[in-house]
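Changelog note: in this version the structure field was regenerated for every chain. One regenerated record is shown below for reference.
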Amino acid sequence: MTTQATIGLDQQTKDIIKATVPILQERGAEITSRFYGLMLENHPELKNIFNQTNQRKGDQSKALANTVYAAALHIDQLEEILPHVKQIAHKHRSLNIKPEQYPIVGKYLLLAMKDVLGSSATDEVIEAWGKAYGVIADVFITIEEEMYEETRNTTGGWVGFRNFKVTKKIVESDVITSFYLEPVDGNLFPSYKAGQYITVKAKIDGEPNEHLRQYSLSCAPTEGVYRISVKREDAIGANPAGIVSTFLHEKIQEGSVLPISAPSGDFSLDQTDSRPLILISGGVGLTPMMSMLETVIKEQPEREVIFIHAAKSGNLHAMKDRVAEITSDYEKVTSYTIYDSPLKDDKCDKEGYIDFEWLSSILPTNDAAFYFCGPKGFMRAAYQNLKKFNVANDDIHFEIFGPAEDISA
């Protein structure tokens, strides 16, 4: 990536970019917040792509600011951010981002820099960032085109959105419901890797824009069906109820049709690894973990698995009966349940939170593959606990729902 991606950047340009690192660290979120405001005001059609809830929370702005900052920091060695680029490219492919949208982003990113930084954004700085953005955009476009081509060439694969019918709707807990999906056209559709997700396009009465949301597939790839298990996001304090999750829970029934993208994502189970598999989840973060669990018992039945799930209480704990059944049927699988606020008749292995002392007491080794997913606070704690347990970086795998964030800070 370095030799090809930075070949068009002269040393002076790279020096100017590197000189902007401190100000991007300080004011990056301010710049990207202004960027989204400018772009969506002038291109309202892009509201059909960008998650407006994340816009309101500021999560999207922070994620973009982190990406811009990382690009500036590693402008001499862009291969350092290649894993991050590929992760974003998977999401872009799932959202059907097009090459012609990149110049729009570049235009308003530079305008936002000028707007926020004022006299600090000299013509020289803006020109340097224009060049750098062009190079970085080309990297994204190239990687994404390869992903689109791979999807087109996959048996049953498609690019864009394809109509799937809800064949079953199953209530899993007080807040999580599963939707089983099969193609309306009855034609072949591709398998996926355990841990991947699809994008659902929601067209909601009364909403001016379409809404795109990404949901992990929660069953094994061999089931011959796609299943998503969606948490209904209720209003809490100043945060309104989730538009799409509420729509799915209340309006979508068996027989309803949903346009979805083909499976995507770089968070997936490595089945070439036969070491113990540790799956740790919090709340609805169990969805990709269930896909991995269902996969490994079928395809690696001799592999030791420890499945750890944390929920607030039993009524909010989805798929507990299925996990209990698997634990009973497969001697290599051990499961643990942690409830933060258990109800009167709840049974669990630990009350409160997953802390280092408890985790280290039940884990057989740190020479294992660790996968975890859940709310961001939960994931930060899980990451810190695993690092304290001396787990190698290459053995730590996680998925963040929504815009990427550094949980290792």
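Spot check on this record: The CA atoms of residues 173 and 403 lie 26 Å apart. The chain has a mean pLDDT of 91.
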